[in-house]
Design a protein that fits this description.
Elements (H helix, E strand, L loop, with lengths): L2 H13 L3 E5 L5 E5 L7 E7 L13 E3 L2 E3 L7 H16 L7 E7 L9 H9 L5 E5 L6 E3 L4 E10 L3 E2 L9 H13 L9 E10 L5 E2 L2 E10 L2 H25 L6 E10 L9 H12 L5 E2 L8 H5 L4 E4 L4 E3 L7 E3 L4 H15 L13
Helix pairs in contact: 2-8, 4-5, 6-8
Length: 362
Amino acid sequence: KEQERAEDFKRRLEELGLEDVTMDAEGNVYGMKYGTGRGPKVFISAHLDTVFPEGTDTTVREKDGILYAPGISDDTRGLAEVLSIIRAIQENDIRPVGDIIFGATVGEEGAGDLRGVKAFFKDHHDIDGFISIDGPTPNHIVYLGTGSYRYKVTYKGPGGHSFGAFGIPSAIHALGRAIAQIADLQTKANPKTTFTVGQINGGTSVNAIAAEASMLVDLRSNDKVELDRLAEQFLAIVQQAADEENERWQSDAITVEIEKFGDRPAASQPVSGLIVQAAYSAIEAVGMKPQLAGASSTDANHPISLGIPSVTLGRGGRAGEAHSLNEWFDPTDAYIGVQKNLLTLLSLVGVDNVVEPLLLKK
C-alpha cells in the first residue's frame, strides 16, 4: 500500500532530471543517471515501506530540533538521502563513468520478504553493484546477510463441544504440542541461529474443542546450511505434533497445513571486497570511524546472494525508537551521511576525467 508515496517519489525523481523514471509492477520506483557508457551500473536505493498500518498518523512534530513521526527515520530519511545525492550530482554537473539507477523499493519490512528488491533484480541482470541506504548508525557497513524463513502453520480438526464431544482431537492441543517441542530446539551460537513462535491464533470459545489453530514462526541464521537444518527440524516437529494429537485420541482427524511466506537468503561476501573497502574509505574521508556491522536482514541480502557486490550503509544524523509511534530523527550534521554515501557511490562508478570506477562492468 505504498502507491501514493511511490508516486510522490517518482515525481521528485523526474523533477531532479533523471531519465527513464519508472514505477514497476511490484511498486518500486527508479530512474537513470547515464554515464559515459564505459563503466559499471550501480543501483542505489532506500525502501518506501514502513511497519505501520494504513491510517497511522504520520504528522511530523518538532521539539527542540528533534523531528518525531512514525517512520521518519526508517526509512524516510534514507529516501531523503537518495534525493540529496541526486541533487548534488545534478547541480554540480557531475558526469559519472558508469550508469547509476536511483530508486526506492517496496517490501523490505515485516512480511514483505524483500519482494521489491527481488523483483528489481529479476528484471535487471546487468547490475554490477548495489547500495541500500538504511540503518540509524552513519558509520556502519552491513555486508553480510542474515537469512530467514517464515511459516504459517495451521492445524485443523472437526471441533466440537468441550464436554459433549470430548474424546476428539483438538487443533489447539496439536498446536501446543508443536510449540512445546519448538521451544526445546537447540541451535548454534556461531553462526547465530534463532527461532521464535511470534503469533498464535485459534479457537472460538472457552467451552469448545478447537477446529482450527495457527502460528506464525520465524527461523533465522547467518548461515544457509544451519538455516536449512533448523527448518528441517521444525517441519518434522510440526508433523509430529499432528500425529501425536491424533494418536492420543485414536483418530486421524487432525491435519496440518504449512505455508512458507518468507524466504530471505543468508548471504556473505569478503570484507576485502571493493564495495566494502570503498564504503570504509568514504566513511574515513568524512571524519568518522568505520564500523563493520554484524550480519543483518536488509535489501542487500538478495543481491549479495546473487554474487553482486552490495552493502547497506547507515543514514546520517541520529535516530531512535524505530518501529514505534515515538520514532524520532535528529538532523544535526546529517549531511555527513549524505556525503559519505555520495563518495562511496562515485568511487564505484567513477567520475569522467576525474577518477576511474573501482567496480568492473560485467
